[in-house]
Write a structure and sequence with these properties.
This protein is an alpha+beta fold. 28% of the residues lie in helices and 24% in strands. It has seven helices and 17 strands. It has an eight-stranded mixed sheet, sandwiched between helices. The structure holds 1,6-di-O-phosphono-alpha-D-fructofuranose (AFP). The site of 1,6-di-O-phosphono-alpha-D-fructofuranose has 13 residues, from strand 5.
């Protein structure tokens, strides 16, 4: 079976990028080991701190972040990193050709219940010398040179794209290597499965409620077919399912916090997942535009996410742009 780095070398990925990817896989193996040790590693549970998003940090969040940051910054090809767990960017070698944005442990509320979590990453080119600090990262997702995630599940998988399709690698625990197990991943165009946190129903805009109402109405409703729902509460795992068998995943905006309508982060959740999904033939949208074309304003920016099977994303967007939505009521905001 083919190993990760030799597989990418055949794609003529440049040596600097190859080295960054190699560093990421070293981190992934270490995080995977700690996670699989579970309670035995003594790293479960929460810290007393909150991250920049105001969320409670898990010990493993902190550990995974430290590990990725330290090891990536030792790589001379890494100019800087941006992480969900860091307020600002952390700079490395001035001559580094790449920037890495990551969510060290996505779905961290799943840690304590021994459920799925993952690391999501996005690699951008370092812009010219006239740009410095956080501004270096403020590039649209179309600039990504590579993106992917590591899913720490029953097996540890690295899912990855450099813009030449999506490949899946599985960590062989015996030899300690990621081996190619799936190539040319294609998301089916149509689906009967969707993923959304239904408990937020009352906070969504009326058009989104209308869309979900029609999914729930099944074969007796206007969609004339039954839909199944799945929600793992870890984007990394929900998107993995979409890549494996299709589906629609969405975390729409809602009206709970007027200045913060969205939950998911653009630079290290939306963009890398959008690149993977588009490379696999799916669509990834904010509800207003293609995720990959959003011009970021800051590194922790949040964004609406609707991604997955192309036909279903298109249908969902048609509902959202229907300004005459018949289900709107006077109390809807
Ligand atoms: P963390 O990054 O704090 O682990 O949150 C995970 C996440 O951002 C994303 O992976 C999930 O899709 C979403 O949150 C789950 O949110 P709910 O709490 O609404 O289920």
């Amino acid at each position: 079976m083919q190993r990760l780095i030799p597989t990418l070398r055949r794609d003529q990925v440049d040596e600097g990028l190859l080295s960054v990817i190699n560093t990421l896989q070293i981190c992934a193996k270490e995080i995977s080991f700690r996670l699989h040790q579970g309670e035995l590693a003594g790293v479960l549970g929460s810290t007393l701190d909150e991250n920049i998003q105001g969320e409670t940090q898990k010990m493993l969040d902190v550990l995974a972040n430290q590990l990725l940051k330290d090891i990536l910054l030792e790589n001379p090809h890494v100019r800087a990193v941006a992480s969900e767990e860091e307020d600002g960017i952390v700079e490395g070698e001035k001559t580094g050709e790449y920037l890495v944005a990551f969510d060290p442990l996505d779905g961290s509320s799943n840690i304590d219940i021994n459920s799925l979590v993952g690391t999501i990453f996005s690699i951008l080119p370092t812009p010219d010398k006239t740009t410095s600090g956080e501004d270096m990262f403020l590039q649209p997702g179309t600039n990504q040179v590579a993106a992917g995630y590591v899913l720490y599940g029953p097996s540890t998988m690295l899912v990855f794209t450099t813009g030449r399709g999506v490949r899946m690698f599985t960590l062989d625990q015996k030899v300690g290597e990621f081996l190619l197990t799936d190539t040319d991943i294609e998301i089916p165009n149509e689906t009967c499965e969707f993923a959304i946190n239904m408990s937020n129903y009352r906070h969504w805009q009326p058009q989104m409620r209308h869309y979900v109402d029609d999914l729930l109405a099944g074969e007796t409703g206007p969609r004339c077919k039954n839909f199944n729902m799945r929600w793992i509460a870890a984007m990394v795992a929900d998107v993995h399912r979409v890549l494996c068998r299709g589906g629609l995943f969405t975390y729409p905006g809602d009206n709970r916090k007027p200045n913060k309508p969205y939950k998911l982060r653009l630079m290290y959740e939306g963009n890398p997942m959008a690149m993977l999904v588009e490379q696999a033939g799916g669509l990834a949208h904010t509800g207003e535009q293609r995720i990959l074309e959003v011009q970021p304003e800051h590194i922790h920016q949040r964004v609406g996410v609707i991604l997955g099977s192309a036909q279903e994303v298109t249908t969902c967007l048609e509902y959202l742009t229907d300004s005459q939505d018949s289900h709107s009521t006077a109390t809807d905001v």
